[in-house]
């Protein structure tokens, strides 16, 4: 038989958080080494548990969740999502504006498949959560990266966005709170981003999966609030992070704005949703419970809470290492430190991460894996408890000391 090759559609598609670095980690594990995996924002392995009402709800509904559901999702979940946004001031948001998916990941892919024509340019932040870039490419589009400015707390560079808009630009992706930087955008920034979309007739795709993981009084602003009725906005969120159930695969996308102008696109989105039948039905049942009930996140994000304390500790300890600086995260589950190129003249940051992995058995993700243009950052997941985090950063510091002395 002839050699079977992967599709040419994958030519520009990368997803490095589970790429060659993970293959190497698995190889080391197969040799008996214990690897501390700090490459993925998955709370469960670090001792975080889902609210018990969510687990109970899924168990309760299992017997009646055996069949396919409506491909857009079960009515109670979609109603709960619509009511959630209504309670946040988005009054023109209804059950039919909501699609439930197997996590935000699946919905990003479905939406982009339904939206993008070959060659369409989509503005994506750099750094980004790399599924966005990969899914734009896989859908036939061209990701165009706009810079976020580390010196401004990783706020999006509005002038850079404007300079990259062409007549072929169709949408603007916002990730807020941001993965990998931990930035949470203030109201003026979110308004300004939406205004750019308004002026240039762009659709806004707003990934808000970390909307509840906020530190030090940071406030999250839904882009849809400022998009009003004249900018089409698709808001993505789900249960994976704030409710700590990545494995259940439950997310949603909510469509707001001039929906009457998007009928054809929404028909296309319904078509691609229909083609995959529906998302995991037991997990859909948890959405109403999660959004409707009292599920305190405060115990995690306030002082003394694990998400908060671990993020602050990681930021502080990393900044104590010579030549390392990181912006204090305002939300999410990551720090994205910079390695001063004068101190660490790295040319291939994936190779650097693999060297760290082999030497210290700690797996982080290189910055270029998030489409950051320079090989001078890495992302650390802040989910381990403080003891483990101290140990991990201590080992990273040891490795960096070796690099400095080479
Ligand atoms: N969007 C961002 C910004 C993420 O960081 C992640 C996961 O890490 C996702 C989407 C995907 O989440 P889900 O588990 O809902 O597919």
Overview of the molecule:
This protein is α/β, with parallel strands linked by helices and 406 residues long. It folds into two domains: 149 residues, Aspartate Aminotransferase, domain 1; 239 residues, Aspartate Aminotransferase, domain 2, CATH 3.40.640.10. The chain contains 14 helices and 15 strands. Strands 2-9-8-7-6-3-4-5 form an eight-stranded mixed beta sheet. It has a three-stranded antiparallel beta sheet with strand order 11-15-14. Strands 1-13 form a two-stranded parallel sheet. The longest helix is centred in the last third of the chain and has 20 residues. The protein starts with 19 loop residues before the first helix and ends with a helix. The relative contact order is 0.17. The model has no long low-confidence stretch (mean pLDDT 96). The chain binds pyridoxal-5'-phosphate. Pyridoxal-5'-phosphate binds next to α4.
Q: Main beta sheet: strand number and arrangement?
A: 8 strands, mixed
Number of strands: 15
Helical segment tally?
A: 14
Overall average residue pLDDT: 96
Looking at this structure, what is the CATH superfamily of the largest domain? Type I PLP-dependent aspartate aminotransferase-like (Major domain)
The helix fraction, in percent, is 25-40%
Q: Give the overall shape.
A: globular
Instruction: Tally the structural domains.
Output: 2
Give the H and E element order.
HEHHEHEHEEHEHEHEEHHHHEEEHEEEH
Hetero groups bound?
A: pyridoxal-5'-phosphate
Q: Which spans have pLDDT < 50 for at least 5 consecutive residues?
A: none
- The appropriate CATH architecture of the largest domain is 3-Layer(aba) Sandwich
Amount of beta strand: 5-15%
Fold-level CATH name of the largest domain = Aspartate Aminotransferase, domain 2
Structural class label: alpha/beta
Could you give the order of strands across the largest sheet? 2-9-8-7-6-3-4-5
Q: What distance separates the N and C termini?
A: 49 Å
**Gyration radius over CA:** 21 Å
């Amino acid at each position: 038989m002839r050699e079977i090759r992967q599709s040419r559609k994958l030519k520009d598609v990368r997803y490095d958080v589970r790429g060659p670095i993970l293959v190497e980690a698995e190889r080391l594990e197969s040799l008996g080494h214990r690897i501390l995996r700090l490459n993925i924002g998955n709370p469960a392995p670090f001792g975080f548990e889902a609210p018990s009402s969510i687990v109970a709800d899924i168990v309760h509904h299992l017997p009646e969740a055996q069949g396919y559901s409506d491909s857009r999702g079960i009515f109670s979940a979609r109603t709960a999502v619509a009511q959630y946004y209504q309670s946040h001031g988005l009054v023109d948001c209804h059950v039919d504006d909501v699609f439930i998916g197997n996590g935000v990941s699946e919905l990003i892919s479905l939406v982009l498949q339904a939206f993008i024509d070959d060659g369409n340019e989509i503005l994506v932040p750099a750094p980004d959560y790399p599924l966005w870039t990969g899914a734009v490419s896989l859908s036939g589009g061209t990701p165009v990266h706009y810079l976020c400015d580390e010196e401004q707390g990783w706020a999006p560079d509005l002038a850079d966005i404007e300079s990259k808009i062409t007549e072929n630009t169709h949408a603007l992706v916002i990730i807020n709170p941001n993965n990998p930087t931990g930035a949470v955008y203030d109201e003026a920034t979110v308004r300004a981003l939406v205004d750019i979309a308004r002026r240039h007739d762009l659709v806004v795709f707003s990934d808000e999966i970390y909307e509840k993981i906020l530190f030090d009084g940071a406030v999250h602003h839904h882009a849809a609030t400022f998009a009003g009725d004249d900018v089409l906005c698709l808001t993505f969120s789900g249960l994976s992070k704030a409710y700590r159930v990545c494995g259940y695969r439950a997310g949603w996308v909510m469509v707001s704005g001039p929906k009457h102008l998007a009928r054809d696109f929404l028909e296309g989105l319904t078509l691609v949703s229909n083609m995959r039948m529906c998302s995991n039905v037991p997990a859909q049942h948890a959405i109403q419970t999660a959004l409707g009930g009292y599920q305190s996140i405060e115990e995690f994000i306030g002082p003394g809470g694990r998400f908060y304390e671990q993020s602050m500790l990681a930021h502080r300890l990393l900044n104590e290492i010579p030549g390392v600086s990181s912006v204090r995260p305002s939300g999410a589950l990551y720090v994205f430190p910079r390695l001063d190129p004068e101190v660490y003249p790295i040319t291939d940051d994936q190779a650097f991460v693999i060297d760290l992995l082999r030497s210290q058995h700690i797996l982080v993700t290189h910055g270029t894996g998030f489409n950051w243009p320079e090989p001078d950052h890495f992302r650390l997941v802040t989910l381990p408890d403080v003891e483990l985090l101290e140990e991990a950063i201590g080992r990273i510091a040891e490795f960096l000391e070796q690099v400095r002395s080479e």
